[in-house]
Structures are given as structure tokens and as C-alpha cells.
């Protein structure tokens, strides 16, 4: 085939150089952004899938580097996409079929606004809410990956800086956007290195770095939307909306303070000898200052409430007390702070999320409802346990509510300080788990009656001793100050029923005590009456015996008297009985010799009564009665001649 047979090439079949250049850079940043999105999306997969990549994704999200890197890449991609739309519109017949004026107005409003929305959405979704509490694992690996992306972005920025501005009017503004993205990537990598060094303050610069690309993207979107209210520019003067005042201030563009002073005020500080001297001495001064600051990192001040473990080349050397100490600078020497006497409280059996901080209450203020410890009310901080209980004769379980707190501190000795740092990662978790296990063992090995009937002080002492022994066996270096048991009672819903059971038990015990007291009183009264009866019977028997003895003695005396006196004793006894019998009767005793019958006569008639003859007492039958005068007067009795009593006359 001859050369004349070759068809002429279409001048529009080959894309112009600016378009190809911007397209390639767009593909580079789009690929980088896609890789970052895929890496962060691994977090959504199950834990067993790609565990290594999942760990990197977790650290990138927790450290904030994921939000910073993705926002920086999307910001650069937004500027490149806006410039790509203009380069396509400048050359009709390639890809797009609209003019540059339309692309500079409507196209920029759509592309830049969409890109700004993606930047802000990525920052909001990947915002590191738990950055301060997350464990900095794999932080150095994430920093290495970010440094690789920053190196690629730096190459793209250098290429954009070398591209001639007459061919691509957006080249200076794009260079500043790419440079800002590169600086953001480097800053994200430095943040990850700071997290790897356990610098807690590094989270605050991370928040600022996440917000920075969002602010630049919002400014670009506002500029692009503002073009909708302006007339369409000419095709020769149409440019992409890539200019940013904030990016110019940060990257030294035409809006930088030095450039504005030179162009508007004519002040060129670059020709000043003072600035020249400072510029020449800046690097040595920075190095000397950095060396001095590095040396001052070995000067440590320990507060009164803390101690410090001095590590020299990674090995613990001594435990330093409060005061000012001069050590080797970091990382040759390191000081690990340790508490000295600070007491911490941890609730047992309650999740950390459920723990409620109690507010301070004044001495004269009313106590809040959260401090109510009555059984009928439930409050935060309670834990419930199952305890054994006998119900209807079978083995069963019931629940009790309790509130137990453990007060602990790091040991005051140097050995305890070393153990608390190198043997225990989280002292609070260790104390809580050990105490929870001991409390659960205590409640599971006792019945409800034993738990509620025991003294809380005894339970707290036993738990404290067991916890101290467990921590000492683990060489944790933690001292248990006290175990506080606020309450142990049935659940709030069963409080009324349990009160009723307790009241019934108390009433039954009181009734039993009353009946026992009544029985004691009845037995005492019976014993008293029996004693009185026995005593009275004994006294009566003694009196009867004494009376019998008296009668027997008198009988013996009478018998002896009769044996000795005979009739005289009988006459004396008869007269005594007569006198005793007639002591209340008026009578006259007469001599029996006055009567014809020679027998004694007793006249029992009243004075003035007619005389009636009657036989005398002891007179023989048939004897005639003695004569009695009728004249009134006293009766007279004259005993017979056998009587030993002398003759006596008695008047009454």
C-alpha cells in the first residue's frame, strides 16, 4: 500500500495533553480513594474474615486517619474532576458536547457541590468518636500506608507544578489543592505515629485536620453555586472552580499574606537583611531549640499524689517519689506515673454503662431520690443475685438485690508500684472481676435466710479478706481499703410480701413468747399455792402434834395426880368444871345439911320464882328434896362433910 492510500488522521481523535494529564491524575486519586474505601469497608465484614485487614481498618477509624485521608483524597479528586470537565469542554468533539461556558457554570455547580457533599459525608461518617479510649493497635502500620499515599500525592503535586500554566489555566489552583491534600496526608500519618506513642493530646489536632478539608470543600461549593447567578463566561476565559482562599493561605498562593503585602503595599521583606539573617540562622536555631527541648524532656516533676517508675533503656531502674528529677531524655529514659494513695471506688455486679455518678448534696439540702435505700424503691447501682431458698419443702431459688462497692488503691510500697504497672493492665477491671466472682460465690453457697440474717459487717469483712488473698496471689500490687455493702434485701417488687412474712414471723414469735410467759406465770402461781398449802399443812400438822403432845402430857399428869390423890383430885376437878360451866349463871350454894335428905340442892330458879323441889345433882334416886325457903334472896349451897372445900357463903 502506498503512502497516499493511508487515510489522514483525525485531528480530534487524539485527546489534548492537558486533558490526558488531568484524566490520569483523576484516575490516580480515584484509585487511591477507592482503595481507602475498601479498606475501611472491611470493618463491616464478620470478625473471622481478614482479621489483619480488619485490625488496620479498626485502627484507622478509631485514630481518625480514615476520615482525614478519605476527605483529603476526595477534595483533590473534586478539584481534578472540575478541571476535567473544563478540559473536555474546551475541545469540542471529544467526550462532551457542550461549550466551556456551560461547563464553567452548571457543570462546576454540579461537580463541585457533589464533591463537597462527599467530603463532608465521609468526615461525618468516619468521625472518631471513641478516639481517646481506643487502644492504639497497629497505629504504625496505618501510618506507613498513609505515608505511601502521601508520597504518591506529592509526586502528583510536583507533576502539576511542572505543567505549563498557559496550556492548563487551572494548574496553579490545582497544585495548591494537591499540595494541601499531601500535607493533610502527612499530618494524618503523624497523628497515627502520635497514637502509637500513646500521646493523648494528639486527638485535638486530629479533629482540626478532619474539619480542614471540609471547610475548603464548602468554600469551593459556595463559589461554584455562586456562578449560577452570574452570566456565562466566554469560552476563552472559562475556568474551573478550583480557587480557594483557605487553600491559598495554607499553601502560599497569591492570597498568602506575604504576597498580598508585596503586591498591594510594595513591602518585600525578602530583601531585608534582618530577615535574611534570620533565614540563615533559622535552621541552626531550630536544631538547637529542638535539641534543648529534647534534653528538657528528661526533666520530670512528680506531684505529691503520684510516684514514678524510671525506665532506663526500657528497663525499670527505681521508683521515684514526689519532686523534681533529672533523667535521660526520651526515648532513652522514660517515667511511668503511678498513683500514690489515691482511693478508687468500683461498683460490683453492675455494668460500667449503668453506673450513675451521684451528685454532691449539701449538708442542709434535701437528699435526692437516688439516695433512697428503702426496700420498696429500686435505684441505680443495684445488682441482683440468685440464692437458694426452701420453698414448699423443695429446693428453689430466689433473688436478692444488693449494692456492693470496693475501695482500692495502688500499694504504697515500691514493689506494689512495680507490680501495678507491669503485672496489671487495668486495675479497675481486675478488682471488679475478682470481687464479682467472690460475691457470686458467696451468694450461690448460702440460703436466703442466711444471707438476710447475717450482719453486713461480717459479710464485708469476709469478702475483703478473700479479695485481698486473691489479689496477693496474682501479685497485682493493689490494696483493698474496704468493702462497703449498702444493702441486701429482696427485690423491690417482693418487698411488701417479704415484710408481711417478716411481720407474721415476728407476730408468731411474740405469740410464742406471750404463751411461754403466761405458762411461766401460771406455773409460778401454782408453785406458790402449793408451797402455801404445804406450809399450812406442815404448820397444822405441827400444831396438832403439839396439841396431842400437850394433851398426852396433861393426861399423864392427871393420871399421876389421880394415882396420888384419888377422890380429892376428882372432887377438885369436878368443882373446877362446875365453876367453869356456871361462871355466867347466878346461883346460891347451901349446905346440904340443911336439907332433910342430907343432899346438896341447886336452885336454878330466877329470883321471885315459886320454889320447886328437885333432887340434887348426884343425890340418890328417891331422896326427898331439900327444903327451900320462899323468901327472896340468894341461894346458898353447903357442901357435904366429905368435901375438902371449906364452908363458904356466896351471894350474887
Would you mind describing this structure in some detail?
It is built from 16 helices and eleven strands. The chain has helices spanning 17-41, 51-63, 65-90, 100-125, 139-162, 171-196, 203-226, 245-251, 257-265, 273-296, 414-422, 427-444, 448-453, 456-474, 495-565, 567-581, and strands at 299-302, 306-312, 315-320, 323-326, 333-339, 344-348, 383-391, 394-410, 478-489, 589-591, 636-638. The strands form four sheets. Strands 6, 7, 8 and 9 form a four-stranded antiparallel beta sheet that branches. A three-stranded antiparallel beta sheet has the order 3-2-5, covered by helices on one side. It has a two-stranded antiparallel sheet with strand order 1-4. Strand 7 and strand 8 (394-410) form a beta hairpin.
